[in-house]
Amino acid sequence: MAPHSPGTDQIATLLWIGLIAAALVVVAVNVGLLASLRRRRGGGDAARDGRAEGGRRAQTRFGAALAAFALVLFVVGVVFTEKARQTPDTGSAGLASAREEPLRINATGQQWLWRYDYPNGAFSFYKLVVPVDTAVELTLRSTDVVHTWNVPDLSGMREAVPGKTNRVVFKADEEGTYEGRAATLSGQGYASMGTAVEVVSPQEYENYVKQLKADIEDAQQRVVSLIEDGETP
């Protein structure tokens, strides 16, 4: 994962903390086992009794240390998770109209495609286009089963659940195309369900949604004209 949004920075940091914590626990457990084996070697009954008593004290201290370590990890996880969930602010190079409120786009999952509805009434399938350095809020919905919006470079995974509304917030810090794949079994075609987020300049974004809406309206008008002429579209 290559973080390109404030939330993914927090997630990447948590992953590294978890990896280091797991390594420390493995080392500590193995050191404790080796120390226990050394204490069991040699000596008479009195020595063995003394070692047993010392072993119990050591186990108590070790358990207390692990409990404290787990508590610290829990607190760190809560803090970083809350930071990752915060809506970022639009930067100076972002879309001017999104300085006060994030750019809100509706994302609807269906078997097996994502549809994106932009604020001006335009819509696209599969590919989402957003401006760089701009706070974006996706409103996630599903028309059938549970789908997962999963673009690791921009955000953590979020589920689109039928009858419920979820959201994704991110701010891409670099122009480019970021790929995402399905992460929840949603039927026989789920493996082909993906998405692409294309990050462009604010001007390119505004031109794109304006042209997209004009193309959609033109296509709709042509269909209406064909129907009025008695032809099959």
Care to describe what's here?
The structure is a single chain. By secondary structure, this protein is of the alpha+beta class. Helix content is 44%, strand content 22%. It is built from three helices and ten strands, in the order H-H-E-E-E-E-E-E-E-E-E-E-H. It has a five-stranded mixed sheet. It is elongated. It starts with 5 loop residues before the first helix and ends in a 5-residue tail after the last helix.
Provide key terms for this protein.
Immunoglobulin-like, alpha+beta, 233 residues, 2 domains, three-stranded mixed β-sheet, five-stranded mixed β-sheet, 3 helices
Low-confidence stretches: none
Considering DSSP H and I runs of 4 or more, what fraction of the residues is helical? 40-55%
Q: Mean pLDDT, rounded to whole units?
A: 82
Radius of gyration: 27 Å
Characterize the largest beta sheet: strand count, sense, and whether it forms a barrel.
5 strands, mixed
CATH topology of the largest domain: Immunoglobulin-like
List the helices and strands and how they pair.
Layout: H1 6-40, H2 45-85, E1 103-110, E2 113-117, E3 123-125, E4 127-131, E5 136-142, E6 147-149, E7 158-160, E8 166-170, E9 176-181, E10 194-200, H3 202-228
Parallel strand pairs: 1-5, 4-10
Antiparallel strand pairs: 1-2, 2-3, 5-8, 6-7, 9-10
Helix pairs in contact: 1-2
